[in-house]
Amino acid sequence: MARKQGSHSEITGPRVREAAQRLIARHGYAAVSMRQIAAEVGVQAGALYLYTPDKQTMLFDLMKDHLTELLAAWDEVVLPEGAIPRLEAFVRFHIRFHLARPEAVVIAYMEMRNLEPENHRAIEALRHGYEDRLEKILIEGQGAGDFQIPDTRLAAMALLSMLNGIPGWFREDGRLSRGRVERIYWNMIRRAVGA
Amino acid sequence: MARKQGSHSEITGPRVREAAQRLIARHGYAAVSMRQIAAEVGVQAGALYLYTPDKQTMLFDLMKDHLTELLAAWDEVVLPEGAIPRLEAFVRFHIRFHLARPEAVVIAYMEMRNLEPENHRAIEALRHGYEDRLEKILIEGQGAGDFQIPDTRLAAMALLSMLNGIPGWFREDGRLSRGRVERIYWNMIRRAVGA
DNA sequence: GCTTTCGCTGAACGTCTGTTCAGATAGATT
DNA sequence: AATCTATCTGAACAGACGTTCAGCGAAAGC
Q1: pLDDT digits over B137-187, tens only?
Q2: pLDDT at A3 (0 to 100)
Q3: Could you give the angle at the alpha carbon of A159 between the alpha carbons of A138 and B66, nearest 5°?
Q4: Cα nearest neighbour of B174 on chain A
Q5: How far apart are the CA of A51 and the nearest CA of chain B, in angstroms?
Q6: Residues of A in contact with B161 (CB under 8 A)
Q7: Confidence of residue A9 (pLDDT cuts 50, 70, 90)
Q8: Of A38, B72, B141, B183, which one has the greatest count of Cβ atoms within 10 A?
Q9: How far is the C-alpha of B69 from the C-alpha of B74, rounded, in Å?
Q10: pLDDT given at position A2
Q11: Domains of chain B
Q12: Distance B34 CA to D26 C1' (A)
């Protein structure tokens, strides 16, 4: 027994990625074995190494791709004029983007400590870039007198913490719709920054 | 070689606990082995089983004790009158308590998924109790017209997410003092709830 | 000083880990 | 029809895992 019926790398590749993402999001990187991921795909463990050089790279690629997509998506948003509308755009964008990818989000914020030093630095730089994009809006609004925030960096971290909590409790079939969550969050954040 | 000079369970016990807390906070439960914990204490792996029935119980006890202390400490706070001062008391209490125990906090919020079902339920119940105590203040203030929050549960989750982010970036020797962080956070939260 | 108890060692257990690789087979190419 | 190549198996590797336990030496109780 070897190559299976209709097996293709364009099919198995994404399936490996999805299985890894699902399992790591649920149980954590260190708790998931290559054999578990392989079983989820319906393949032997050795076959995974046709799609990744090793387990660590698998994690790194998941995180890197997520953050790269996040930055690219934000940079494509057409920004309105004024810091307040821009902050609103950021908040709504962030909530939508993250609620659409709960597994990637969990991994990006829980598995930092399982990255080897070099990978850790690379991912941290990407994340830092995203924080900077939010802080830029806050600095802008602070300069224009739209916001009252004594420390824009702290405010950026606080707002992101608040936003990042959402995928932790939001349920698609729960009490609140995505739109309602967006609206309530924007209201809280608008007031929090003094706008 | 067996029992060492001056060795006592009252000394080794806490040392095991501290080593486990430190290592699990840093690397994660699944990534830390009993042999690593033992090495940190300066003992063989087998000796750990004089202080815990197994690794899972070790994690459970760390989380349970942390949350139990948290609830007990909050319940001993003498609450002022009025929802706004009470919310301020909560915010300042929360920041102080958590900044004093960064390792316990990281574990309590990252290792839920490594708890076996029964333990998971127990810890979730404790955490739920803490969320309820915050929501109680929000409901109180909403009823009195002090706050403008359309959904007290969502607001409670949002505020806790925001607060729980602090130990992730706060540095004792950093740009901002604890007192300043407390003040800025309270200001943001006060405005966020419309007070 | 003798005995009991406590705290720990060091080896062993069966199982699982990430990773490698020769060999096998299905599908594509000629 | 014959050849080639991409995809996967199944076994093997050395080492690490959580946990158990007989035995031993130091401390405590008498």
Answers
A1: 999 999 999 999 999 999 999 999 999 999 999 999 999 999 999 999 999
A2: 61
A3: 150
A4: A154
A5: 24
A6: 161-166, 168
A7: confident
A8: B141
A9: 8
A10: 60
A11: 1-52 (1.10.10.60), 53-192 (1.10.357.10)
A12: 25
Q: How far apart are alpha carbons A94 and A103 in whole angstroms?
A: 15
Name residue, tokens 């300043």. B180
* Positive or negative torsion for Cα B167, B30, B19, B53: positive
Phi, psi for A47 (deg, rounded to 5): -65, -20
Q: Do B151 and A185 touch (CB under 8 A)?
A: no
Chain B residue at shortest CA distance from A23: B113
Per-residue pLDDT of chain B (195 residues; tens, 9 = 90+): 466 666 677 889 999 999 999 999 999 999 999 999 999 999 999 999 999 999 999 999 999 999 999 999 999 999 999 999 999 999 999 999 999 999 999 999 999 999 999 999 999 999 999 999 999 999 999 999 999 999 999 999 999 999 999 999 999 999 999 999 999 999 999 999 999
Q: Residue B129 carries which side chain, given as an amino acid letter?
A: G
φ and ψ of A157, to 5 deg: -65, -40
User: Of the candidates A176, A184, A192, which has its C-beta nearest B191's C-beta?
Assistant: A192
Closest CA to A141 of A82, A77, A81: A82
> Residue with structure tokens 């729960």?
A174
Residues 6+ away with beta carbon under 8 Å from A127: A67, A108
pLDDT digits (tens, 9 = 90+) for A71-83: 999 999 999 999 9
Q: Which residues of B47-72 are buried (b: 16+ CB within 10 A; e: fewer)?
A: ebeebbeebeebbbbbbbebbeebee
Ranges of H-type helices in B100-193: 102-110, 117-144, 152-164, 166-169, 178-192
CA dist A38 → A15, A114, B174 (Å): 10, 20, 45
Per the document, the length of chain B is 195
Residue nearest to nucleotide C11 (CA to C1'): B46
Tell me which chain B residues have a C-beta less than 8 angstroms from the C-beta of A168: 161
